[in-house]
Specification:
This protein is an alpha/beta fold. It is built from 8 helices and 6 strands. 42% of the residues lie in helices and 10% in strands. The longest helix has 24 residues, at 3-26.
Length: 242
């Protein structure tokens, strides 16, 4: 078998395994509190979303299976991803994230309104520490633990990742915990989260970058600005060698 056939077969295998993982994710009902919340939100949406059918299920990761940059968020928004069926889609956080990804060359368009809007990612993959929208955006420790195996499997499959961008401390900590579970090297002492924080992982040389989460709490107050977020992804692109 010639080299390009081997590569094609390997890429297809990764895509297939990610697709199988994503089917398991979207059918998950392990956390009763989260199931109740995501379905209750869908049953009584705000007036601006009346008539829209909510996804109201866990969200799978999405993007390029050959990604060199992995984005780890917190969880779907109740009226964003929980409504549209795709992470960071249909909410203010997504408006900021996809603009930054577009400006850094990872997305084909600067916004994402719904799951059928033809958004594609090149060189990047988006996932989250938690796959269901939690009440008040505050997941419980047990819910985080039950969701961790999905991130573990994603990291094992996305073998080309060279840079991880953690959106917020929860994403930062989730990535470090997942590395520990996979038996991958960790810096000592463990790096602390902060916007612009940068840590090189021993062994595989992956770089972990920190960014404030593009939540309205951060963007409305000016804690996170568009140039700040754009700079993180511009650096991620450079470090990933794209």
């Amino acid at each position: 078998m010639i080299v390009n056939e081997v590569v094609a077969e390997d890429n297809g295998n990764v895509k297939g395994k990610l697709a199988a993982l994503n089917r398991r994710v979207t059918s998950c009902r392990l956390c009763a509190r989260l199931v109740r919340h995501r379905e209750a939100v869908a049953a009584e949406p705000p007036r601006r979303y009346h008539g829209q059918r909510y996804w109201a299920r866990p969200l799978a990761g999405f993007g390029d299976h050959r990604a060199r940059v992995l984005v780890v968020g917190l969880a779907p928004a109740a009226h964003g991803g929980n409504r549209t069926g795709r992470m960071f889609t249909g909410d203010r956080s997504g408006d900021w994230l996809f603009r930054a990804l577009f400006e850094a060359g990872f997305a084909n368009q600067p916004s994402s309104l719904h799951a059928g809007d033809r958004l594609t990612l090149s060189g990047a993959y988006i996932t989250a520490a938690l796959r269901c929208a939690p009440p008040a955006n505050k997941p419980l420790p047990g819910e985080m633990r039950r969701c961790q195996p999905y991130l573990l499997e994603e990291l094992a499959l996305l073998r080309d990742v060279r840079v991880v961008v953690a959106l917020g401390k929860i994403g930062w900590d989730a990535y470090l915990r997942t590395r520990r579970e996979l038996g991958l090297g960790l810096p000592r002492p463990l790096p602390r989260f902060g916007h612009g924080a940068r840590a090189l992982m021993p062994g595989d040389g992956v770089t972990l970058l920190g960014s404030f989460h593009p939540s309205q709490q951060n963007t409305f107050t000016g804690k996170l600005t568009r140039p700040m977020l754009r700079a993180v992804f511009t650096l991620a692109r450079r470090l990933a060698g794209r």
